[in-house]
Amino acid sequence: MTEDEVLELLLRDADFYKHDGGITYSGGEPLISLYRIENVLKRIKGLGISQWIETSLFASEKQLMYSFDYIDNFIVDIKNLVPDQCIRYLGGDVSVFLRNFKEVSNRYRDKMILRIPLVEPYTYNDENIHALLDFLKEYGDLKIQIFKVHNLAASKYRKIGLDYTEFDELSDTKLKYVYDELLKNCPDVEIIDF
Amino acid sequence: MKIIDLFYEKNIKIYQIPVIIYKRALYFYSKHASRRGIIPLVMYGFKSMFSLFGLKIIFCNNDKVIQIDNLIDKMPVEYDSQSRFYYHIDEKIYFNNRYPVIGNMPVDYSFVINNSLEEIKNKIIDLQGDKNDYVRLLNVVEKYIDKICERLSSLDGQYNNEIIENLKSIKISRASSLTDALQRILLFNSLLIQTGHTLMGLGRIDLLLDSFEIKDKKETNEILKDFCIQLHRFYSVKSQALLGDTGQLMILGGSNNETGYFANYYTYAFLEIIKNLNLPDPKLLLRVTRDMPEDLIEKSLECIATGNGSPLFSNDDVIIPLLSDYGFDTNDSYNYGVSACWEPVIIGKSMDQNNLVTIPFAKIFVDMMDDSNIDSAETIEDVYDIYGRMIQDYVKKRAGEVDRNIWEPSPLLSIFFEDCIISRKDISEGGAKYNNYGLLSDGLSNAVNSLLNLEKIVFVENRMTIHDVRKVLKKNYAGKESLIEELTSSEEFFGRDDQKCISLTNKVFGYAKNALAGQSNRFGGGYKIGLSSPNYLMDGKYTTATFDGRKSHKPLNTHISCDKNIAYTELISFASQLDYSGYGINGNVIDFMINPVFLEKNFSKCVDLVKVSIEKGFFQMQMNVVSSETLIDAKKHPENYKNLIVRVWGFSAFYVDLPEKYKDMLIERALKNEGKAA
C-alpha cells in the first residue's frame, strides 16, 4: 500500500478517535518500519489523533528515537529476559531490549503499559518468570497486563496456506500464579483476554 | 424432522393440535365448499373434539362485537393474587378468526389512559350516532370489567380493593394514578391478545406515563416491576415463531420535535428493572439521538451487558427524516414506534403490517445462477442487470400477493385509531391514517459477497466461467475446499468500509426499493422494505450454495452483520453509509455479538462507540452479549443455564428454549466474533 492508501484507511475511523481513541501501530515489530510511513505519522499528528505503538523493543536505537517524535504512548511487550532463551526463542538480544526500555520509560513512565504474553515454555518457565518478576520490581508503578497466548492465529495461518502447530494454552492456575506474584510489587496489574 | 422437533420448534402444545387442524380445515372448506353445506357440520364436529381437550372455541360471527361478548361470557376470572394488577389470558379459549388478524404493532394506550370509556363512547356517539359497533363493544368491555370486579370482591387478595377501584375507574374517569394507567394497558392488552391479535407492543411507555407524578421512587419501581412481571405471564401463548417472540416491546426515549430529547424517570426506571429482572420479555427499544444524555447510553449498556439483548437502539436522527420523506407527516414521524421487532410505524395512526414477506436476496442469486440466461453475461454489469431484473420481478410479484390479503375485522383494535372512528372504517378496511405494507429481506450479505467473488474470479481474473461456478454450486463445493477458503477470505465483502462494497450493497438494495416505487395497495398505502428479517435460518434451509463459500442449506447471515471478525467500527461505518432513503425504511438492524468480558473491560469506550455511531448515522443496532464458552457449555449442560438469555432476531429468549440449530448458529457467530473460528 502507498502512504496515501494507509492514511485513507486510518482516517476512515477518524470519527471514533475523538473520544480518547486513536491509532496503535503493531506488527511484527513496528519500530523497524515506522520510518516508511513518515508522512502518515506527520499527518495524523497534525490532526491531533493519538498514536500509540505496541512493540517488543527489538529495534535499533535510531529506530526507537525516530518514534519519539510521533508516538504518544508505548505498549511494551515483555516476553523473555533470559539472554540465552531470548536468542533461542525470539532471536532477540536482551541487552537491546533493556537499553530501549530505559529510554522509553524515561520519557513515557507515567503512561506506558507493559504486556506479558504467557505461553509455555517460551515465556512461562521458572527462569524467565523469576527474571520478569525481578525486573519489574523497579517498575511497580506501571500498568501491567498479562495474558495467555491463544491459538487464535491458527485460522489465519491456514488461510494463507501456512502450517500451524497448535499448542496448549497456559492453565488458569499458572496464570493466576504470575498475577499473584506480580501483585506483590505492582498494584496495577490485570489479566486481559483477547 | 421428528414430529417432536416440529412441536418444539413451532412452540405447539398438545391441546392446540385440534385448533391447528380446525384452522387448516376451515381454510380448505372456505375455499372449496358452500358455507351452507359442509362448514357448519365441520364446525360442529370440531366443537365436540375441542370440548374433549378442555378447549372452548368462540366461533366466528359476522358480528365481531357479539363474538367478543360470547368470549367475555366464557372468560373465567383468574389472576395473580400477589399482583397489584388484574391480568388474565386464557390459553384454552380459542377465539376464531377467519382471516389473518392485524397485529404486530404498538398500541396507542394514551386513548384509554386519558379518557374514560364513558368519554370515549360520548365522543364516538357525537361522531357516529349511538348505534355503532364501537359503543356496543365498549359496553361489552364494561361488562367484562363488572364481571371481574364482582368476582374479585368475593375473593381475598392483598390488592383486590385497589384493583377493583382501578378497573371501575376505567369506565368513568381518566387514569388518576400510575397503577390505574398500567391496569388499563394490561386489560386492553389481554383482550387484544385473547381475540387473536399477536405481537402487540406497549408503545412509548415512558411518554404514556409522563403525567404520573413519582411520589415514592421505591414504590414506583415496585409497581413498574410488577407490571413487567404481569406482562411476561402467558409467555408461551403469546410467543409466535419461537418461545420469546411475543412482540411485547416497550419503547423508551425519543426526539421531540419542539423540546429536544424526551426521557423521564420512567425511561431510566424501566432500563433498571429490565436489567435486573432476568426475563427475555418484555423487551425494550431506546430511541437515540446525538442530543441524548450520555448517562442514558450508559444505563442502556448496563442493561445490554446482562445479555438480555435489550434495548435495541433506534436512531431518530436517521429515521425521522426518512419517515417524513417516505410520506408520513412530520409530527407523526416524531411519534414513531416500531412493530414487534424493529420496523418503524406511527403509533395510533399506522395500520402498517410490516412483516408480510421476506425478499430472499441470496435465493434470487441462486436462481439467477441456475438460469442459463446468465451464461450470456459478458461483464459483471450484465450480471447486475439480470440480477436486478429478477429482484424487481420478485418484489413486485410478492407485493401484489400480499395486497390480496383480507384482514379480519377488529373493532377492538380500531378503537385505538382515531382515524378509524372518524372515517367509520375498521382498521381492516383501511380506516387508519396510514395503511402501508412492509417487506423484509435476508441474504443480502451472502448475495453481495457472491457478486463480488463472481466479478473477481470470472470477469477480472478469468479463472472460471459462469458455467464453472454453476457446477461448483450445484455440487455444493464438493472437492473445492480451497475455493471455499478463497471465497471466505476475500478482501472485499459486505461489511467492509470500502466504497466498492458499499456501492454494490446500495445497488442491490436499490433494485428492491425501486421495484416498490409507485406501487400502492388496495387501501392506497405504499410499500417499504428493510434489511433485517427473522428468516435467516429458515430461508437458509431452502437456499442452496451461494458463491461466498456458504454451502447449501446453511444459515444466511443475520441482518446487517459480518462473519469475518471485523472491527465494530468498520461495520458501523459501513451500515451508516447504506442508502435507506425512499422505500428502505422497514427496519435495518446492525447485529453484533460481543463478548461480555470485552464489554466489561471497555465499558466507557463502548459508551463512546454508541455515541459516535449515532452521529455516524446507523439506522438501528442491537447487541448480543454472550461468550462462545458460555453458549457451548450451556448447550452441553442446559440444567446449569436455565436463566441464560440471548438475542435471537428482534427478541430475546432463554437459550435453553431455543431449537438446536439456533443454538448452533449463535455458537458459530460467537466463535467468529472471538476469532476462534474460520
Please give a structural write-up.
The complex is a heterodimer of chains A (194) and B (678). With 194 residues, chain A is α/β, with parallel strands linked by helices. Chain A has helices at residues 3-11, 14-17, 30-33, 38-46, 61-68, 83-90, 94-108, 126-136, 154-159, 172-183, and strands at 22-25, 50-55, 73-77, 113-118, 143-148, 189-191. The two termini of chain A are 27 Å apart. The model of chain A has no long low-confidence stretch (mean pLDDT 92). Chain B has 678 residues and is an alpha/beta fold. Chain B has a domain at 1-54. Chain B is built from 30 helices and 19 strands. In chain B, α2 packs antiparallel against α3, α14 packs across α28 and α21 (444-460) crosses α24 (499-516). Chain B is globular. The chains are: A alpha/beta (194), B alpha/beta (678). Chains A and B meet through α9 of A and α26, α27 and α28 of B.
Q: Which structural class matches the secondary elements of chain B?
A: alpha/beta
Determine the mean pLDDT of chain A: 92
- Number of helices, counting only DSSP H or I runs of 4 residues or more of chain A: 10
Q: Name the helicity range of chain A.
A: 40-55%
- CATH top level of the largest domain in chain A is Alpha Beta
Write out the CATH superfamily name of the largest domain in chain A: Aldolase class I
End-to-end distance of chain A, in Å? 27 Å
Overall tally of domains of chain A:
2
Order the strands across the largest sheet of chain B as they lie in space.
5-6-9-10-17-16
The proportion of strand residues of chain A reads: 15-25%
Proportion of strand residues of chain B: 5-15%
Low-pLDDT stretches of chain B are 1-9
Instruction: Give the largest interface.
Output: A-B, 16 and 24 residues
